[in-house]
Amino acid sequence: MPRKAGELYIETQEKITFEISGADLEKVRHFREQHKNCFRGEVLEQFTYSFSPSGMGVALEVRCSCGKILELGDFAGAGR
Ligand SMILES: [Zn+2]
Prior knowledge:
Blueprint (H helix, E strand, L loop, with lengths): L6 E5 L5 E5 H13 L12 E7 L4 E7 L4 E4 L8
Antiparallel strand pairs: 1-2, 3-4, 4-5
Bound molecules: zinc ion (ZN).
């Protein structure tokens, strides 16, 4: 799949790929910037991604190794 600039592709633990762009991408970048010093080398991945179905679609969670979670709402059509 060709990858465009300004978009981020994330594969969750459930092996579902989300395409993130626009305001959500900014939130993810901001979250990762805020947490760039959390990584201690004790875990394989600092950030883990998971999704949870919600009433409107699918919500994506980004969890830092420190335990903080960023929730992004409603990816219509993802996870099917
Ligand atoms: Zn953190």
